[in-house]
Amino acid sequence: MTEQDGSEVSPVLPEDLEARLNAVLARRSLTGGPQGAPETARGWLDVSYEAAYAEDLPRAARAARAGLDAPGGQDPVNRAGLFRALASVAELNGDHAASTGYIADRAGVLAAAGYPHRARMEVELGAMLLREPEAFEATVLQGVVEDERRRSARSVDTALPDVLVALAVRHVEDGRLEDAVHLLEECLRAQDARVTAGLPVAPESLSSTRMFLAHVHLMSHEPEKSAEVADEVLAGEPNRAVRAAMWMLKAVVAQEDDDTASAVLHALRSVELHAAAGVRKGSASAAALLAGLAADAGNQQASILAWKVAVAQAEQGEVPEASDLTLALGHQLLEAEEHALAERVLAGLVRREEAARRLPGLARALVDLGHAARHQNRQDEALEHWDRAASLFERAGATDEAARMHLAYGALLNRQEKAEQAAERFARAVELARADEEEGDPEDHDPAVLPQALHALGHVLCELGEERGVALLDEAIALAQDSSAAWHEADFTDTRARGLWALRQGPAAVSSALTAADLFAASQDSTASSNAELFAAYVLLEQERAEESATLFRMITEQEGTARYLRMAAWLGLAQSLDLTGDEEGATRARFEADAAAQAEDAEDAGTSEDGDGIGDGAGDNVGDGDGDGSEDGSEEGHGES
Fold first, then answer.
1. pLDDT tens digit sequence for 454-484
2. Model confidence at 632, in pLDDT bands (50, 70, 90)?
3. What secondary structure, in 3-state letters, does 456-470 show?
4. Could you count the other beta carbons within 10 Å of the beta carbon of residue 318?
5. Would the pTM count as exceeding 0.70?
6. How far, in Å, are 71, 93, 124, 201, 237 from residue 104 at the CA level?
7. Are 132 and 91 in contact (CB under 8 A)?
8. Backbone phi, psi, residue 619, to 5°
9. For the residues of 525-575, what is the DSSP string, one character each?
């Protein structure tokens, strides 16, 4: 056997590499741990974590429900974690009603354990703590953080750690990585202080928060800090999916340090643990990294075997054929935030698809290649890939996909404050979506594309001062009505109100906002309904229609169940309205109520023990919290903030 064959074990590769990879191929793992059903609630919670990372949401929900009835299922820490797991799964499935119910169940456990304030805050904030918050929600969370910081100085009954993690997720999405690090470190200090004080902290809170921090350090080009935090995670007792993600991170750091021997060992552990936990995409990603390392070490046979593992794991994830498999691997690498490695895989796929003249496959590869460039802050390069992808989709007759590509292109331009250019892309998306409505294959047609395109174009045109944007928004609303998409009808109507106000059509903006409020209420989204009413009231205030705005602000303050931050904003708006009417006494009283809403405790908190006796701080109690869905903030998708 010659050196060129690459069959001999390289000095940087472990001697048992092939045996361990073959064990994974045989659907076995030499380090997978005990098999069989868990015997405790904590074990079932780990299974729920792992199933969520494997994107097997039905199994994740079944495991969490099983944990509720298992030994230890009545323990407040375990029970609260299991209910949050169920809420997260429901949110990922788009079942908002079920998610709200599980949040309420969890709140009941928290209140019974001596944390009524935290329970109330979790109910008020709802899904903001389970997914990636929107930009507006981040403003709300920032205010809540300040309140909770003050509260945490005198009581352990606080939602501060959860809110810090949620706000950190938003900061990462906005590219504010340093701010995210500060929030996560503050969260960990609070959690560690509770541990030191002998207060309960859910184990998954610590591991998921540290895992998130490790990934943010890596995104911030701080590999040493990232590896240090990963070691802290591994020193605990996290589930296999979390351990696998941390070994993957350490492999990437070792690779960047040119420590190939360590990178290989870490990647191999990640392959095994991901496979043992059933996280096929994660195992494929780690195997792809291992394949590249083996090839760089000159061992072609080991590299080929690692690629076989990657292919086999992805095939078990129901990836149908070679090109789609490679695209899936590249996409998963993007989700794992291995953007440079994803670019390497996808660039090769682009070359192969181009040589074979497979236009749809080439276009899809270019889409993801553009994402890889975007995540590495090469926005212009991303736009070039997406422009070419859109053209290829059009040539291939894939008008829905072409329209979606123009929407993505336009959205990125709009984020770069290039509204006029964004409008051109949105207009092309509308044109293509209309053509698909009229001429496309009904079986391949996506009816959601046209209203989305009309909504995007209408919104940006209004912001540019063009009144024709309102007509486009009206058409989007009509399409939502025709398809019985009630919440989207409300959302589009809310955008219409804001577009009208951008055009300085105050009375029409108020009317549209109040209509949106009614529609949101009919869709059981009371928070969005109150927010639309608040917008209408502020438009009235801006127009100096003080008596009308005061009436609306007062109505919001009197509504039962209104979130505290909305009530506080309504009291402030009422104070400004009363200032305009000359009612100084009423304005002073309204400002007092705003201060009370911001700082005073509810009556239910009055008897709360400062020490508590139930559950820990809970940042990341939900499965996968702190790491998001994996596409932006962490190595794999799971429960928690998306």
1. 999 999 999 999 999 999 999 999 999 888 8
2. very low
3. HHHHHHHHCCCCHHH
4. 8
5. no
6. 23, 18, 10, 20, 29
7. no
8. -60, 115
9. -HHHHHHHHHHHHHHHHHTT-HHHHHHHHHHHHHSTT--HHHHHHHHHHHH
